[in-house]
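Hi all, long-time lurker, first post. I run a small reading group and we've been trying to get comfortable going from sequence to structure in the token notation. Rather than ask abstract questions, I figured I'd post a concrete chain and ask someone more experienced to write out its structure so we can walk through it together at our next meeting. Sequence below, copied exactly:
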Amino acid sequence: MSLRTALAAIAVLACASPALAQETPAQPTAPERQPTAEELAMQAAAEAFDGRMQAMGAELQAVMTDASTSSAQKTASVDSILGVYTPEINAFADQLVAFLNSMAAQTTDPQEQAALQQASVAADANIRGIPDQVRSSVAAHLANQAAAATGGSGAVAGTVPVQ
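-- Answer (accepted) --
Happy to help. Here is the structure in token form:
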């Protein structure tokens, strides 16, 4: 979870960095550039999103460490949790993409525009991919647990059998 949240934060910082780089270093007495209202709003949204992802992570952790549930029950619980958080994930992706596209539209530097548009595409894919990545991680974890329970005699995707 933290990796995806970090990617979102990096995308936000990536769009702020070109604007910061445009400051005139020749004026040492010039006041520091203050973030715009749009940047402050995006920062607040990113912090709120991070909090929600931390909460989701805690819920997922509780499900995965519950020894009284079967793999099928864990998978169903994970799907239920993701069902609650996926709309928020998608809404944040929409908000971040709109922010990055707005920043790209405000600059006249073609390289900066391209970088912001690339960051927008990457951020959108990474953030919207969170539910699928969680499902994939859960499936791999459950498969590893099942293999360990059977003495490791079955091959698990992504592992090398030991002879």
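A couple of things your group might point at:
The helical segments are 2-21, 37-64, 71-106, 110-128, 130-149.
The radius of gyration is 21 Å.
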